Amino acid sequence: GAVVSQHPSRVICKSGTSVKIECRSLDFQATTMFWYRQFPKQSLMLMATSNEGSKATYEQGVEKDKFLINHASLTLSTLTVTSAHPEDSSFYICSANTAGTNYGYTFGSGTRLTVV
Amino acid sequence: RKEVEQDPGPFNVPEGATVAFNCTYSNSASQSFFWYRQDCRKEPKLLMSVYSSGNEDGRFTAQLNRASQYISLLIRDSKLSDSATYLCVVKGGKLIFGQGTELSVKP
What we know:
heterodimer; A: mainly beta; 7-stranded mixed sheet; 11 strands; globular; B: mainly beta; 5-stranded antiparallel sheet; 0% helix; 55% strand
């Protein structure tokens, strides 16, 4: 089945540094990648939608200059959290629409970011 | 009002019990509906799609009532392995997730 590989699974960084999270679609072409954030005991919140070769579309309240998204190829999308602060600590997860189906989304395994 | 609302629970039930989760959504133009399962600190995984005619997959039955904008999930004969958070998900132009309902099945 469709697989989205997300790395790293866990990262701890110092406040003020940047962190890059990668999502790769292993056996299909992900023309669209969705990036979510989930705080403890809360729902997944869509941060942005990225389409290959074009600028990402950010949800209201998400700073595009802080959360840089690059989707340069059909199999790779990256999210960079710039100048991370403790309040950015969260579970970040990507998702792509499974090729060949009109429903169901394949998720990466998530990245747990802790900013200290 | 949240776009997708669920009772967060937790639901604590004994093995073998039948448990029902409910979900309501606000956008009547929503096109597709799903239940996902999320284990602690892991990614959501698709449990089943939901159709107006109702659909069943083993011990799981999902139902959609478009008029009431209401979605349900019924789990029969609960297993310990069913313990997880169940996410109601609605698709319009994008996926909208409910907060999730936590289920804990005890021996």
